């Protein structure tokens, strides 16, 4: 009887354990509601003749900033959702 118990312990010690089950879970980050909103529209230009300096500094900066803002915002949202912008 002792021999049977000793051989059972020896055999069970040599057996390989079951392979673990590995699951990959993709967790998407939470995006604040503010990031999902589009960038603000450009400011309205006055109903008067603008000087060249005003056009260059205000209008160009405003439009370029809005384009960059929207591209960055859309890219960030798309990247977190796994879609192409």
What does this structure look like?
- By secondary structure, the protein is mainly alpha-helical.
- The protein contains three helices and no strands.
- It has helices spanning 2-14, 33-36, 52-81.
- The longest helix is centred in the last third of the chain and has 30 residues, at 52-81.
- The model has no long low-confidence stretch (mean pLDDT 76).
Structural class: mainly alpha
Query: How many individual helices?
Result: 3
**% residues in beta strands:** under 5%
How many strands, what sense, and barrel or not for the largest sheet? none
Binned, the helix content reads 55-70%
| Helix and strand run | HHH
Morphology call: rod-shaped
Counting DSSP E segments of at least 2 residues, the number of strands comes to: 0
Low-confidence stretches: none
Distance between the termini: 72 Å
Mean pLDDT: 76
- What oligomeric state best describes the polypeptide chains here? single chain
Determine Rg (CA atoms, Å).
Answer: 32 Å
Task: Kindly list the characteristics that best describe this protein.
single chain, 85 residues, mainly alpha
Helices and strands in order, then pairings?
Elements: H1 2-14, H2 33-36, H3 52-81
Short description:
By secondary structure, the protein is mostly helical. It has helices at residues 2-14, 33-36, 52-81. The model has no long low-confidence stretch (mean pLDDT 76).
